[in-house]
Amino acid sequence: MEKAGTFSVLARDGAARRGRLVTAHGVVETPIFMPVGTQGTVKAVGPDDLHDIGARIILGNTYHLYIRPGDELVARRGGLHRFAAWDKPILTDSGGFQVFSLSALRKISEEGVEFASHLDGSRHFFSPEKVVSIQKNLGSDIMMVLDECPAYGVDREYTKKSLDMTTRWALRCREAYPQGSGDQLLFAIVQGGFFADLRAESAAQLTPHPFDGFAIGGLSVGEDKALMLEMMRHTAPLLPEDKPRYLMGVGTPLDILRGIAAGIDMFDCVLPTRNARTGTLFTSQGKVNIRRAQYKEDDSPLDPACACYTCRTFTKAYLRHLLVAQELLAYRLNTIHNLAFFLDLAAGARKAIEEGSFAPFMAGYEAIYDD
Amino acid sequence: MEKAGTFSVLARDGAARRGRLVTAHGVVETPIFMPVGTQGTVKAVGPDDLHDIGARIILGNTYHLYIRPGDELVARRGGLHRFAAWDKPILTDSGGFQVFSLSALRKISEEGVEFASHLDGSRHFFSPEKVVSIQKNLGSDIMMVLDECPAYGVDREYTKKSLDMTTRWALRCREAYPQGSGDQLLFAIVQGGFFADLRAESAAQLTPHPFDGFAIGGLSVGEDKALMLEMMRHTAPLLPEDKPRYLMGVGTPLDILRGIAAGIDMFDCVLPTRNARTGTLFTSQGKVNIRRAQYKEDDSPLDPACACYTCRTFTKAYLRHLLVAQELLAYRLNTIHNLAFFLDLAAGARKAIEEGSFAPFMAGYEAIYDD
Q1: Could you read off the pLDDT of B308-348 as tens digits, one per residue?
Q2: How many domains are contained in chain A?
């Protein structure tokens, strides 16, 4: 068994990389899309469904699992893998993003962040050391450092102070879990808001240190797509060549392809799962809003190019009926398909990079999708 | 291929029967429990899940499917089997029960029943001929006649008039779809409320006619369990020996065993699916309310005697977490298990009857369950 953390770039096509990351629960082939499993389950699907569509690594959410059912309870169950019956890799975020987006009454200090639970308002405190301890309890394959994720539109001065503190927090996380002290990996998070020079400064502060991978945070908060892409393209090449790069919380199929083109290896986003539950489905022929009356009598599969259970088995007419009738099966079938689409996108990208045909591969999606 | 409607009793143990009913979509081994698929899906599970737990025949609901998506739309899709991707037998009820329980503004006449849609209040009319036409459109293997299902506590005079009309409606259904005119079967429904002599009269009126099976209706409405059982035990032996007998909408595991002991062959009930969604789970060790705090750290399977996906894969602690966190996966996993329990109950009963050990088999459940 190879050592957890080993990352190799197997092929390149422009800046796009075809890689391989070893974790304690198996190898992750990159570029990869990681379905989001906030509360210890990817919403609406089971591990059986995830296996069927070839999911290789899923996310767990530190904030949510800490609040409920509690990381110590999960640890007593043998960790998140055993608790959730998922034997493949898991990445846990640091909880920072949720603390800053879900919890109104937060108080940030050098020591960490105090916040109120979104469930019962009870007060809690996350320090860098605490989120490492929680993630150790969860037993994830990849842990993320605690970072401050400033809101969109925050000024330069605040952003600069914030990224400096995020660096200090990252180093405290690394200290709390020195590289090689176990088989969990720890990724740092580059911040710096929407200021190119601050992004560069954050990367310069973090990359000399022995993290197992580097993430770009804070780019899923904005509304300005062009600016987000500019920051992403600016930041990606500032990250080490020999470590995995992870763009947090982004995005649409095209965003993911743009990220891959910029040299990003790992992606997560609630878009496919959340959109599935409202009926916006991604297909090889574009987006389908399955609620629309035009699908009432449509006996074709959702996506003829897709091999998922939903597309192999059901018609658009039936999927529309299920969603309109608010049947629970709708959420599962739609989620299976949307995740299959995002996983197929990543698998197609891996193959295209190997074959040196990533640009035409991406152009195929640009011909169908426009955001 | 044997002729649809062929019913053979393979073994007996007391009044309990081990039978075999041929339908256009395959053989149904009886006694059988039929999961309820109101709107063209058994709530929270897919056909894949139903296959896995060995479901052999499911219910569809004439009223709901007529209202949405519409029986004619389903017919244009090739019928309910193709629409819902379920290739095994389907029984459709007549819609009568829903019209009488869901629709406040109903007007009953000899011709049929006028009612308001529970969705938009639009006015509709079900006649015996109409519900046969709807069920022909749905293409179910077993159709039910339109019956009036009087509310609990209705007086003798009303009940007598009602059962007489139910008989006339049943004969109009048979006339609209003469036996042998297609491979769909048609079952009549014995009514008569909670009056033993009226039950006998209803049975006497209906059983001379060429129906493919006989159901006992109107026994899922009461609150008096002893009276329900008395009526069931009184009515079952009044039904022909050589036709399948179906107790509609009943009930608990013990009720089903009591029905089997009385010579009933077929059962349906929303109990396992509805209870699954609120966390009341049936196990070989009794009922489990999975929300209870006592299961917070319980790493044992829900039911060690059960081989379903839920019990093979997850712990009580995880199932509790999913339900408390209102995760959609909870509904699927709980439903898979509860249905597996009811299907195993029926399978166990079949084996016990074959082996002449039905009484001790039933006693085993009586030792665990008390209603």
Answers
A1: 999 999 999 999 999 999 999 999 999 999 999 999 999 99
A2: 2
Residues A130 and A277 in one domain: no
What does the CA dihedral A25, A31, A37, A41 come to, rounded to 10 degrees? Answer: -60
In a domain, B113, yes or no: yes
- Tell me the mean pLDDT in the region B81-106: 90
A262 in the same domain as A274: no
Bridge partners for B142 per DSSP? B91, B185
Q: A324 contacts in B (CB within 8 Å)?
A: 68-69
CB contact under 8 A, B69 and A39: no
Domain assignment of residue A194, given as a range: 61-268
Q: What pLDDT score does B150 carry?
A: 87
In a domain, B215, yes or no: yes
Average pLDDT (A305-324) is 98
CATH code, domain with B78 = 3.20.20.105
Indicate whether A210 and A282 sit together in one domain.
no
**How distant, in Å, are the alpha carbons of B34, B305, B334 from that of B340?**
11, 11, 10
B145 is a domain residue: yes
A5 inside domain: no
CB A328 within 8 A of CB B273: no
What pLDDT score was predicted for residue A197? 98
Task: State the complex-level ipTM.
Answer: 0.97
Least CB-CB distance to B39: which of A46, A297, A325? Answer: A325
* Of A105, A151, A101, residue with least CA distance to A125: A105
- Kindly list the catalytic residues of A: 93, 268
- Per-residue pLDDT averaged across A28-49, rounded? 98
CB contact (8 A) between residue A321 and residue B296? no
